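Hi R.,

As promised, here are both runs. First protein below:
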Amino acid sequence: MQNFSVLFLAAMLFFFGACSKPEVPLRHALPEQCTVYDMKQASCIDLAELAGRLAPYRVVFVGDHHAESVMHMRFADLITLMAEQSRHVMLANEWFTPEDDTALSQYAAGSLEGNFTSVVDWQKKAGYAFDSYAPVYDAVRRANGALYGINMDKAFQHAISDQDETNMTTAQKAFVHTLDMNLSAHRAMLAPFFSHCHAKHKNESAADCSERMYRVQVAWDSYMARQSAVLAEGELKKDADVLIIFAGAMHLAYGVGINARFARLSGEPFVTILPVPEGISSADVGEADFLLFYRRDKKEKDHP
């Protein structure tokens, strides 16, 4: 009888163990009419409720679909609602570097009117219409918030791409030597985008080109994560403070980009919000904590 019990227990463990891993990706079926989808509760909420659910968090990652001005207006509305709930909003933006912080501070304070885009060289940095992003920055300014840059400059980016440490500072070299190229989920997510080399160097193989592009992507994510962690450590003083890291959606999807590397550097809890065009019918489990729906701007080219 004892042997039977042991065999029965072993069989049950085998059965449940074999069935514990789904054979297909887990997905949410998204409602047709939804402003915000809470992926943990699998339910639709409005922007005001989202602002309320963000109250316990002082770090919020928000993905950007760069060419979508309607998405930017919806995000601006969220910032306004957070400010109305007495949050002190600080926006750290992918477009800018820490060297832009002085100009960003002046702009947030109401200076540089009419001169901001030229001072920060907007067209070269972003390449998209400033008017598309103005509602986001205006919402921060109306809330008496702050603006910060978190990206690396072009010279450093090119040096990383070329693996040329000739003109790097000691700190830059140390940063490059700590890049983690082995986060398998991150590499797998980006593999389809790097399968074709768009600007192959002379005598460079396709495989080497793909690896170079991936190295730059890892550097981007790691640098923005590090700068975000520095801001979180230095600027988050009160419970009402909130640091919003605003970067391209692919830098944040599935929690394996900037947010994963931020988590290695900071113990500050965070959530991730990704934008979704209306009409999308499903989303993978784990893409984000919240999905922010918007109506796609047909007049502009989409660059998520």
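And here is the second one, sequence first, then its structure tokens:
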Amino acid sequence: MNLLDAILDARGGGAVRDLSRNFGIEEGQAVSALRQLLPALSSGLKRNVGQPEGLESLLGALKSGNHARYLEDASAIGQPETVGEGNGILGHLLGSKDVSRRVAGRAAERTGLPEGLLKKMLPVVATLAMGALSKQTTGRGGLLTRAQEAPGGNLLNSLGPLLDADGDGSVMDDLFSIARKLF
């Protein structure tokens, strides 16, 4: 399951309903925004995991943070601390506000939603992505547990499906596609 599917499935679609309500848009528009914003976040995750100590840093964040609450708690999406934490996540994943602006601008072109709205949504979407990643990796029966228990288990390989933004089975095409568009 990739990040988009994990968010869409959270609480039977409740996370998407909360996102749409919080930003005053229809659910279909929220899904469209997620489809356009998540590939950049996924690429940032892949880039970070590929750096020295990046995987260890990500696992530490997933273990120590309570990121799953963003998918489980309907009130979390509208909280100011959610935006603050989301901006911190964006700083790690995208590196600069300029990249975040370009991501929002490109998403606006593709969704028809206002760029300003997508800029506001991006930190919240980042927290939802970390929530989905947290649930998939550290929860009961999650990838972290399975990779540690499996003989020769490799967590990096296990994370591949979650980081596959377009669900085609390859994370590399997503990384190259986003890099071409942003830089």
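A quick note on the second one: DSSP finds eleven helices and no strands in the chain. Let me know what you think.

Best,
J.
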